[in-house]
Specification:
By secondary structure, chain A is mainly alpha-helical. Chain A is built from 4 helices and 2 strands; from the N terminus they run E-E-H-H-H-H. Classes of the chains: A mainly alpha, B mainly alpha.
Chain lengths: 116, 248
């Protein structure tokens, strides 16, 4: 499906990525920045998973219930890796934010700039 | 007030300047959903045609994850382990350094949850908990042949741990992590990969190879299952500890 000559799915991923980007650059709350990072990651994952899909294909699980064509399993496996790395990144970022809050009493970037 | 408006306009300009070229570039990618797209040209046919015979796993995503790209997954679990190490290295990170602050229990018993536990939440979680655990085990056990697998099972187990902590308080759920075995549980995923990889070498193959013929998959399946168990246990324990560390 096309919108302005651009595939609607691709447009949606781009918009989602920009929403995340705006959160990262515009919000001064560190947790919202991390959330924005996750939204950006979700856009990339959605793009990758979509690239592996074939219209009308079955999921890449070979049982009696499924038949060819099968979706490409490689992007799904790679996105699974990406999700796990994103979890690791989010965990470290949140732990750092907790530490920052314990040390400075705030997680707002503009207040942290004025902190001693 | 005016500076705020200027700042917002500048930010939106930055996002548009990055976003428009991004969308235009992505739009020039080959259309998705077609069988002859370049992404399907390289290795996908091999996985779909021979994946089950070569790996013994009808779930081809698991086959790619644990077999064809086993090294990738090995380093991936090391990344998660390294994330836990990084979090624990922070001054607030170590659970064993200081005791959990004592907060009084509430009417529902020995919960030390910092907020009062709603009875509805308490009974819903208590009723659903065995089924959540069963679902995690089922996903682990059937992960090679149906949607699921070690990572998914780990996520469900960790979610169960989180909701249990919300109703029971961390002092009681921390015991589930078995203090003495904890280092082994946290490292379960990299350890499983290292051991199964070494076993592959002992059985005459290369690191992480899993011997098997087209018809006999017993050794192959056992080694794959060992990897899945390692990923599920290690992943769940690491996620639970990350939660406990960040939650304080």
């Amino acid at each position: 499906m096309l919108l302005f000559g651009i595939d609607l799915d691709y447009l949606a991923f781009g918009v989602l990525f920009c929403v995340g980007l705006y959160m990262v650059v515009a919000k001064s709350n560190l947790i919202k920045k991390v959330l924005g990072l996750n939204v950006m990651q979700t856009a990339v994952f959605a793009l990758l998973v979509t690239s592996g899909m074939i219209d009308g294909a079955d999921p890449p699980v070979r049982t009696e219930a499924t038949s060819a064509p099968f979706a490409n399993p490689l992007p799904q496996a790679m996105v699974l890796t990406g999700i796990v790395v994103a979890v690791a990144l989010t965990a470290v970022a949140l732990a750092l934010i907790v530490q920052i809050h314990a040390d400075y009493g705030t997680i707002e970037v503009d207040e942290l700039k004025e902190a001693p | 007030m005016r500076s705020v408006a200027v700042r917002s306009a500048a930010l939106i300009l930055v996002v548009v300047l990055i976003g428009v070229p991004l969308v235009v570039t992505v739009a020039t990618l080959p259309a998705h959903g077609e069988a002859d797209a370049p992404v399907h040209a390289a290795v996908a046919d091999r996985y779909v045609e021979h994946g089950v015979a070569e790996t013994g796993m009808p779930n081809l995503v698991t086959a790619v994850l644990l077999d064809y790209r086993g090294f990738d997954t090995f380093v991936e679990v090391v990344v998660v382990f390294a994330a836990l190490m990084a979090v624990l290295a922070l001054p607030r990170g170590d659970l064993d350094q200081d005791g959990t602050p004592e907060t009084g229990g509430d009417a529902l018993g020995a919960s030390d949850s910092p907020v009062e536990v709603s009875p509805i939440v308490f009974y819903v979680v208590r009723t659903l908990a065995p089924f959540i655990a069963l679902f995690a085990v089922a996903m682990l056990y059937r992960g090679h042949a149906s949607p699921g697998g070690g990572f998914q099972s780990a996520a469900v187990l960790a979610a169960l741990f989180v909701v249990l902590t919300l109703i029971l308080g961390r002092r009681r759920t921390e015991r589930l992590l078995l203090r003495r075995a904890r280092p082994w549980l946290e490292g379960a995923a990299p350890l499983a990969f290292a051991l199964v990889g070494a076993a592959g070498m002992l059985l005459g193959g290369t690191f992480l190879s899993r011997p098997g013929t087209v018809d006999v998959h017993l050794v192959q399946e056992t080694m794959g299952f060992a990897l899945e168990i390692g990923i599920a246990v290690g992943g769940a324990v690491i996620l639970a500890r990350l939660f406990l560390t960040v939650e304080r």
